[in-house]
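[09:14] KT: can someone run the structure on this one? pasting the chain below
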Amino acid sequence: MKSTADGVPGEQVEPAAIPRLGTTWFDRGAGYWLRRIAHGCFQLALLLFAGLVVTAFYAGFWEAVGVPRSARTAVYAVTAVACLLSLVAGFVRTRRAPVEIPTPEQARREDRSRQRRNAASAAGGRWTLLLLAPVLPATVAWAIGTWAAPTLARRTAAEIGAREDYERRVREQEERAEAARPLPPRNRAERRHGRR
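[09:31] RB: done, structure tokens below
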């Protein structure tokens, strides 16, 4: 709920918009949950698609190298264990990592910066794909684990930062309203002096 300082008429403190959630984080209503679930599902779909592509590439890589079928089964079993461990390690590491709480402006800048980095790495990462073929499935599993930790958190770092920023602005407005309020006279001498 938007607040004014102690019921004093004046401007309201509006919550700041954060990337992908806008101002829905403030009330956490149906719009908030719809946006958050839709964004999480979209990210998961992209990661799963990348996982399918990597798995097909990985299987084709071992077949092209000429590894016998029995040896490939052993390689796939080792890869499956590595993927499971990577998934868990990515989730646990991301969950335990200290989170830097951004202000809404920092969250927007970081979001734009991440989008630029992703576009640059997509263009330059084609050759490294061939070099990393043996560990690609584990890398995608790690990415899914690091995606799951913040996505499944109750509140994102951007939401926490926006809430802290909002509360700071409400306190500042209350302090300005308090400073602007005239002080009542404390005794009769001050009252008489005020009349003169």
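[09:33] KT: thanks! The chain has a mean pLDDT of 75.
[09:34] RB: yep, looked fine to me
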